[in-house]
Write a structure and sequence with these properties.
CATH topology of the largest domain: Jelly Rolls
Low-confidence stretches: none
Number of helices: 8
Strand content: 15-25%
Radius of gyration: 19 Å
Largest sheet: 6 strands, mixed
Mean pLDDT: 90
Length: 247
């Protein structure tokens, strides 16, 4: 069994993580906000994975066993909050939109000395206000539990561009499309098309950190056309893949 590191206090600091680098599974007694100013960050738990480019941050509640992985070089900014202080009222990992103002506040706060001066207290208060106003983003890729779903999802993780229908994939894993549709709703809380779109978006972010051309990303991730990919990406992240910052 893998040993889970227990860090009682979630640190507030900055950290550099090389492309492909990772932080093994661990947990904190405090809440933490994790933000990558550069690159793409993935946070994984037993419930699935959450991915965040530079316009997103990830809320990790106290006690959550989680691991980090870097796609592209990461400038990692970590904001720890006491367990009794939950400004977002969230009890599960969540991706949050990061406005230009919130980005600068996170960077300034993680680089500031925690000296409890009036200036530090004001910076902290504005940061918490901006966090409360930050929209939540549906960028969670839940992990399946049912064996037949695990088999199907592994096929698509290996090749997100696989465009086969649920019925066609079902024949490979030995289940009907009706059974699989029910399992997606009951086990993962979303439909098959919704899950596959989340998977493809996660994979697209990884490819973009490698400076893969947008047309190639669209093809490898299974979109019918580059314009269709650009449209979904823009609606999800608020900017086009061509303007997405790379690691």
């Amino acid at each position: 069994m893998t040993e889970i590191r227990h860090d009682p206090v979630a640190p507030t600091c900055t950290q550099w993580l090389a492309a492909g680098g990772s932080i093994d599974a661990h947990r904190h007694d405090d809440h933490q906000i994790v933000y990558a100013g550069r690159g793409v960050l993935a946070v994984t738990t037993g419930e699935g994975s959450w991915v965040a480019p530079g316009t997103r941050a990830i809320w990790v509640p106290a006690g959550t066993v989680h691991a980090h992985r870097a796609y592209g070089e990461l400038d990692l900014h970590l904001v720890g909050l006491p367990v009794g202080e939950n400004p977002l009222g969230l009890n599960a990992p969540t991706v949050l939109a990061v406005s230009p103002l919130l980005r600068e506040l996170i960077i300034a706060y993680t680089r500031a000395d925690n000296n409890h001066s009036p200036q530090w207290a004001r910076l902290r208060a504005v940061l918490l206000d901006q966090l409360r106003a930050s929209p939540q983003q549906p960028l969670h890729l839940p992990a399946p539990m049912a064996p037949v779903l695990i088999a199907l999802c592994d096929i698509l993780r290996a090749n997100p561009g696989d465009s086969r229908t649920l019925a066609e994939l079902g024949r490979e894993v030995g289940a009907s499309d009706r059974t699989l549709s029910r399992l997606f709703r009951d086990d993962l809380g979303m439909t098959f098309p919704q899950w596959r779109t989340q998977l493809r978006l996660h994979h697209a972010l990884v490819l973009l950190t490698k400076r893969t051309p947008v047309t190639v990303v669209a093809h490898r991730c299974g979109w019918s056309s580059t314009s269709a990919f650009i449209d979904v990406f823009r609606r999800t992240f608020g900017h086009t893949p061509g303007s997405h910052p790379t690691g």
